[in-house]
Amino acid sequence: MGIVSQEAIKQFQALMDQVPVDEPLKRTFQNVHQGFLVETFARFLRAREWNVVKAHKMLMDCLNWRVQNEIDSILAKPIIPTELYRGVRDSQLIGLSGYSREGMPVFAIGVGLSTFNKASVHYYVQSHIQINEYRDRVILPSASKKYGKPITTCVKVLDMTGLKLSALNQIKLLTIISTVDDLNYPEKTNTYYIVNVPYIFSACWKVVKPLLQERTRKKVQVLSGCGTDELLKIMDYASLPHFCKREGSGSSRHSQNGTDNCFSLDHHFHQQLYNYIKQQSLINESVQPIKQGSFHVDIPEPAAEGTQIAKTIESEFNKFGNGNGVSDSPLKINGD
After folding, report:
1. What gap in Å lies between CA 242 and CA 131, rounded to an integer?
2. Among the listed residues 180, 175, 189, the one whose alpha carbon sits nearest the alpha carbon of residue 62
3. Spatial CA neighbour of 191 closest among 161, 153, 141
4. Phi, psi of 326 (to 5 degrees)
5. Could you give the C-alpha distances from 236 to 30, 117, 229, 261, in angstroms and in order?
6. What's the helix, strand, coil split of the chain in %, to 5?
């Protein structure tokens, strides 16, 4: 870390030291940094191009959002009944497949086959934040302890299998989720690996890529096919997402055994996550009974960059549909 970076972190630290110890902001900040203060300051500084004033405002806005929306208690609010949560898991495809050789968690995301049609928007946002919080409060601290070094970021493998023009219907929800991440969980992803890429994604990527900030562009790697060879350079075979374990194996062509499919509620990651949330809810039950219903979160306005990207993607999808007479069929994968 350079001298300029170290000085910025010292200035940031001095500003945060002014927050009174007994304030809720201080308590929620502990859930954010988990003892890794320098790494946390660096994340927010990177997200604001090392401008201390802007980074401090971003962090304070994040902490206020957490307090106002009771984010610290979200891991004690299970989505019930279980059948509803299974529906969320079957339509919002995400899971932990393993760890990189450097100890970073590997999250798999089934972008192309996530339908988001089994529950309200609030449940999907709640589930997304719960996975973020479980990652930051449980998964990453455990990995840091195991590997004996700070591990504060993850790797994401995005599967585009099954991407359809109907994905346009999900742009609003995906914009909400990305806005929550950008403003409150910045710089938590080390690298995005994109696999099983159809033509429509390649067309969109060409026009979206220039709109991204340079630090984001550098994180994105579009791999050939299901990306097995490239991913094996950073992780063992056992940590590969199920859709990367053989050529032509997309999210829809996985083993019916939930222990292999990390998207499934039956996978050990989701079982551990859901049991953790239920246990936390039982601890808190004496104070406040468990209620059915989604956890509503205030969604900040997306940044101009995010809005422009969403509009660009929508425009490219519409061009593709209008120009090719395609309605809602799966889109051909490059090289197939």
Report:
1. 19
2. 180
3. 153
4. -95, 135
5. 33, 34, 11, 17
6. 55, 10, 35
Kindly report, residue by residue over 168-211, the tens digit of the pLDDT: 778 889 889 999 999 999 999 999 999 999 888 888 888 888 88
Which of 114, 316, 122 has the alpha carbon at shortest distance from 209?
316
Distance CA 127, CA 137 (A): 15
Residue with tokens 């802007």, as numbered in its chain: 54
Q: Above 80 in pLDDT, residue 320?
A: no
Enter the tokens of residue 281: 């809810």
Cis check: omega of the bond before 141, within 30 degrees of 0 = no
Phi/psi for 156 (5° steps) reads -120, 135
* Sign of the C-alpha dihedral computed for residues 302, 305, 310 and 314 taken in this order: positive
Q: CA-to-CA distance for 274 and 93, rounded, in angstroms?
A: 15
In this predicted structure, the answer to whether residue 245 has a pLDDT above a threshold of 50 is yes
Token pair of 318, please? 């519409």
Is the whole-model pTM more than 0.85? yes
Return the CA Rg of the chain: 20
Q: In what order do the strands lie in the sheet with 220-222?
A: 94-99, 105-110, 154-159, 189-195, 220-222
Please state whether the peptide bond connecting residue 302 to the residue before it is cis, i.e. omega within 30 degrees of 0: no
User: Using CA atoms, how far apart are residues 319 and 323, in angstroms rounded to an integer?
Assistant: 6
